[in-house]
Amino acid sequence: MMTLKPGWLLLLSIIAGVWSVPIDRNGGNQEVKEEVQEENADTGLYYDRYLREVIEVLETDPHFREKLQTANTEDIKNGRLSKELDLVSHNVRTRLDELKRQEVSRLRMLLKAKLDSTNTQSLQMDHASLLKQFEHLDPHNQNTFEAKDLELLISTATKDLENYDAERHEEFKRYEMLKEHERREYLKGLDQEKREREEKRLQELREKHRQHPKVNAPGSVAQLREVWEETDGLDPQEFNPKTFFKLHDTNEDGVLDEQELEALFTKELEKVYDPKNEEDDMMEMEEERLRMREHIMKNVDINKDRLVSLEEFLKSTEKKEFNNPKEWETLDAKPLYTEEELQRFEAELRDKEEELKRRVETLHQEQELLKERGKALEAQKREYQQAVLEMSQRQKEQQAADGQLPPAGPNGELQFQPQTHKTEEKEPKVPAEHQADGQNNLPAEPPQNLPLHT
């Protein structure tokens, strides 16, 4: 996996960095880092692979790589960097063209699958028009990768990544409401005694989860010192922000990206969540991690590029909040949704269940109809076979009557009948003079030893 420059990191910070790993004081970290880079996290974008491959190809062109290193935020956002595409090598352009054709082909398959799932006659649809709904490439030109494609890819990825955190929060909120809905449905199915006992048990689990050590505010001196001491193994009295930054800039690109920041919160999260405990939900732990990262970005990331530079980091350590932060409130401090929101969510679930029931009933009716049609076809098949058999029987009987074949038996087999033939030979007529009363009608034997005439 390539290591992206700050220009790409500005827009694609999720895919640019690597997962932070423990620092090896003995120099053994290099091998681990390379392995981690190969397992870089997915951005969650539906065009993630296409995005990665385009960046990898562009990074192989020396001219474009040089321009990227010197580009600033405005150059990338206003599309000026995209115009440099005209100057890349022919080989790079050819590879980009092929990547775009593959992406268009993939999108067509997705469209067909989607249309097929909705029982739409996809063959009658205009795929060129449908491709317009994808914003990360130019649908009017489906064969070559142009400057407009790079501009669209950058702008779309930027917008989608900015909305990514909000979508994750909404997804987690729905997850929590679903948990509460299932809890209530489960309790409804119990008798009063069991329900009271189960409610008491669940309440005890919630209270147990809340009894955790104090969590330090993300990015505060207390939180960073804890990492410095317990993760880095250094003397807390010698804490140095600049050294701390360099230690945790694991890919050495001069900035802390989102993955490198989130790795700093592990010690705090372990105070609240343990995968061995029934009361601790690991989905909640990841939501807590996201909230911590957003807190640092809000207070430290001055230029809002989703990255923390060394300068921004050092400035944050000079703020009053760095030494005297507000107490960090974990997720269990206040509810994530109102009762009204939960009721709307449950109504939505009921509507979906009813729709599924209707679809199941429709499928059941179609199945029964297919069974009836199968039975009718089987009956027609038997009638056809009987008609063919009867026709064959009549043909054989007709041939037997015409003397062409022996008569057929009751099952259509040929039946051969023995015929009587006269075995008596006709007696030869013998002249009257040779016949004698009571003698054989055969002529007398010729005389023996008659003289020969010469």
Automatic annotation (TrEMBL):
<feature type="coiled-coil region">
    <location>
        <begin position="147"/>
        <end position="208"/>
    </location>
</feature>
<feature type="signal peptide">
    <location>
        <begin position="1"/>
        <end position="20"/>
    </location>
</feature>
<keyword id="KW-0732">Signal</keyword>
<keyword id="KW-0597">Phosphoprotein</keyword>
<keyword id="KW-0238">DNA-binding</keyword>
<dbReference type="Pfam" id="PF25434">
    <property type="entry name" value="NUCB1_N"/>
</dbReference>
<keyword id="KW-0479">Metal-binding</keyword>
<dbReference type="InterPro" id="IPR011992">
    <property type="entry name" value="EF-hand-dom_pair"/>
</dbReference>
<dbReference type="InterPro" id="IPR002048">
    <property type="entry name" value="EF_hand_dom"/>
</dbReference>
<dbReference type="GO" id="GO:0005794">
    <property type="term" value="C:Golgi apparatus"/>
</dbReference>
<keyword id="KW-0677">Repeat</keyword>
<feature type="compositionally biased region" description="Basic and acidic residues">
    <location>
        <begin position="421"/>
        <end position="436"/>
    </location>
</feature>
<keyword id="KW-0963">Cytoplasm</keyword>
<dbReference type="InterPro" id="IPR018247">
    <property type="entry name" value="EF_Hand_1_Ca_BS"/>
</dbReference>
<feature type="domain" description="EF-hand">
    <location>
        <begin position="236"/>
        <end position="271"/>
    </location>
</feature>
<comment type="function">
    <text>Major calcium-binding protein of the Golgi which may have a role in calcium homeostasis. Acts as a non-receptor guanine nucleotide exchange factor which binds to and activates alpha subunits of guanine nucleotide-binding proteins (G proteins).</text>
</comment>
<dbReference type="Pfam" id="PF13499">
    <property type="entry name" value="EF-hand_7"/>
</dbReference>
<dbReference type="GO" id="GO:0005509">
    <property type="term" value="F:calcium ion binding"/>
</dbReference>
<feature type="compositionally biased region" description="Pro residues">
    <location>
        <begin position="444"/>
        <end position="454"/>
    </location>
</feature>
<dbReference type="GO" id="GO:0005793">
    <property type="term" value="C:endoplasmic reticulum-Golgi intermediate compartment"/>
</dbReference>
<keyword id="KW-0964">Secreted</keyword>
<dbReference type="GO" id="GO:0005085">
    <property type="term" value="F:guanyl-nucleotide exchange factor activity"/>
</dbReference>
<keyword id="KW-0333">Golgi apparatus</keyword>
<dbReference type="GO" id="GO:0003677">
    <property type="term" value="F:DNA binding"/>
</dbReference>
<keyword id="KW-0472">Membrane</keyword>
<keyword id="KW-0344">Guanine-nucleotide releasing factor</keyword>
<keyword id="KW-0106">Calcium</keyword>
<keyword id="KW-0175">Coiled coil</keyword>
<dbReference type="InterPro" id="IPR057576">
    <property type="entry name" value="NUCB1_N"/>
</dbReference>
<comment type="similarity">
    <text>Belongs to the nucleobindin family.</text>
</comment>
<feature type="region of interest" description="Disordered">
    <location>
        <begin position="387"/>
        <end position="454"/>
    </location>
</feature>
<comment type="subunit">
    <text>Interacts (via GBA motif) with guanine nucleotide-binding protein G(i) alpha subunits GNAI1, GNAI2 and GNAI3 with higher affinity for GNAI1 and GNAI3 than for GNAI2. Preferentially interacts with inactive rather than active GNAI3. Interaction with GNAI3 is inhibited when NUCB1 binds calcium, probably due to a conformational change which renders the GBA motif inaccessible.</text>
</comment>
<dbReference type="InterPro" id="IPR040250">
    <property type="entry name" value="Nucleobindin"/>
</dbReference>
<dbReference type="GO" id="GO:0070062">
    <property type="term" value="C:extracellular exosome"/>
</dbReference>
<protein>
    <recommendedName>
        <fullName>Nucleobindin-1</fullName>
    </recommendedName>
</protein>
